[in-house]
């Protein structure tokens, strides 16, 4: 039996990085902060890793730090408000990337979506992320 589909409009993009095809997005080096506290960092990583699948793509991404990681995934995840690449946690774990306080505050206030359903992401908003700064 197919899972019901939950359509979500107006998801806010975060963690999509500058590339040749998307030069308007930020580069992860702008978000590096090796002083980020372990407990908060682990909370954010756990939140990201436990998002629900929102979009699947055919091609895989690559690490913008050129660390050699070529399998950065083909899926975007969501928590119902934000949408992010499935391997966003790679940047936090290996490259000391810290996401903006707006996102961290959101995580502290929200619960991850529960239930057995598929998500159809509609109308993703990149405008905030395109201008985002670390603090």
Q: How are the secondary structure elements laid out?
A:
Layout: E1 5-9, E2 12-13, H1 38-49, E3 52-56, E4 75-78, E5 82-85, H2 88-95, H3 101-109, E6 118-122, H4 127-131
Parallel strand pairs: 1-6, 2-5
Antiparallel strand pairs: 3-4, 4-5
Structure description:
This protein is of the alpha/beta class. The chain has one domain (25-120). It is built from four helices and six strands. It has a four-stranded mixed beta sheet with strand order 2-5-4-3. It has a two-stranded parallel sheet with strand order 1-6. The longest helix is centred in the N-terminal third of the chain and has 12 residues, at 38-49. The mean pLDDT is 89.
Jot down its keywords.
alpha/beta, 4-stranded mixed beta sheet, two-stranded parallel sheet, 4 helices, 25% helix
Secondary structure: number of strands: 6
Provide the spatial order of strands within the biggest beta sheet. 2-5-4-3
Helix content: 25-40%
Give the overall silhouette: globular
How many structural domains are formed by the residues? 1
Give the termini separation.
Answer: 46 Å
Name the poorly predicted regions. Answer: none
Order of helices and strands: EEHEEEHHEH
Rg calculated over all Cα atoms: 15 Å
Mean pLDDT: 89
């Amino acid at each position: 039996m197919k899972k019901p589909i939950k359509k979500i409009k107006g998801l806010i993009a975060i963690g999509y990085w500058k590339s040749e095809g998307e030069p308007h997005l930020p580069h992860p080096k702008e978000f590096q902060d090796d002083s980020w506290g372990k407990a908060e960092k682990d909370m954010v990583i756990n939140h990201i890793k436990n998002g629900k699948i929102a979009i699947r793509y055919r091609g895989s991404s690559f690490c913008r730090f050129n660390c050699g990681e070529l399998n950065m995934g083909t899926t975007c995840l969501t928590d119902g408000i934000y949408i992010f690449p499935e391997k966003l946690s790679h940047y936090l774990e290996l490259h000391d990337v810290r996401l903006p306080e707006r996102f961290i505050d959101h995580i502290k206030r929200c619960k991850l979506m529960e239930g057995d359903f598929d998500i159809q992401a509609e109308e993703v908003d990149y405008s905030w992320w395109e201008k985002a700064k670390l603090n």
